[in-house]
């Protein structure tokens, strides 16, 4: 695993895009602070940058570095969640502008998965996580379901044997600073 992480870090630092197993499904990833790398992901997915992307962080400190204000309720949700949960915060900061929503919001998931957590920790930056498919197409549930078009457009593919087998999308909750919660995906 260490060799895979090191290779991913080299690619990410160079502004590249990786195809990697996340705590949910296989994802396209890049340095979430690099505008050009984020643009590559939109291009690969053939997706408008008007729709923001999910960002992964590895710990509480990193979450606070990239979210302007973390509502108290978010900490409770993170602690109580029984499955991967993405929270959309009203305002992101220190990220590539094209990783944010048009309103400045950001969807972030605090990752607990072994491979992703170690990768983000060693990179010391958040990474983008979006499903490995063309926008509008079905989300592939495993590595074999990912199209050759996606595979041929990334800079590095993580060894499929590192896939820990979780095959569902994260829950997505949108939080407002006033404590209001909106469930976007269960």
From TrEMBL:
<keyword id="KW-0548">Nucleotidyltransferase</keyword>
<dbReference type="GO" id="GO:0005524">
    <property type="term" value="F:ATP binding"/>
</dbReference>
<dbReference type="GO" id="GO:0005737">
    <property type="term" value="C:cytoplasm"/>
</dbReference>
<keyword id="KW-0547">Nucleotide-binding</keyword>
<dbReference type="InterPro" id="IPR050156">
    <property type="entry name" value="TC-AMP_synthase_SUA5"/>
</dbReference>
<dbReference type="GO" id="GO:0061710">
    <property type="term" value="F:L-threonylcarbamoyladenylate synthase"/>
</dbReference>
<keyword id="KW-0808">Transferase</keyword>
<dbReference type="GO" id="GO:0008033">
    <property type="term" value="P:tRNA processing"/>
</dbReference>
<dbReference type="GO" id="GO:0006450">
    <property type="term" value="P:regulation of translational fidelity"/>
</dbReference>
<keyword id="KW-0963">Cytoplasm</keyword>
<dbReference type="GO" id="GO:0003725">
    <property type="term" value="F:double-stranded RNA binding"/>
</dbReference>
<keyword id="KW-0819">tRNA processing</keyword>
<dbReference type="InterPro" id="IPR017945">
    <property type="entry name" value="DHBP_synth_RibB-like_a/b_dom"/>
</dbReference>
<protein>
    <recommendedName>
        <fullName>L-threonylcarbamoyladenylate synthase</fullName>
        <ecNumber>2.7.7.87</ecNumber>
    </recommendedName>
</protein>
<comment type="similarity">
    <text>Belongs to the SUA5 family.</text>
</comment>
<dbReference type="InterPro" id="IPR006070">
    <property type="entry name" value="Sua5-like_dom"/>
</dbReference>
<dbReference type="GO" id="GO:0000049">
    <property type="term" value="F:tRNA binding"/>
</dbReference>
<keyword id="KW-0067">ATP-binding</keyword>
<feature type="domain" description="YrdC-like">
    <location>
        <begin position="2"/>
        <end position="186"/>
    </location>
</feature>
<dbReference type="Pfam" id="PF01300">
    <property type="entry name" value="Sua5_yciO_yrdC"/>
</dbReference>
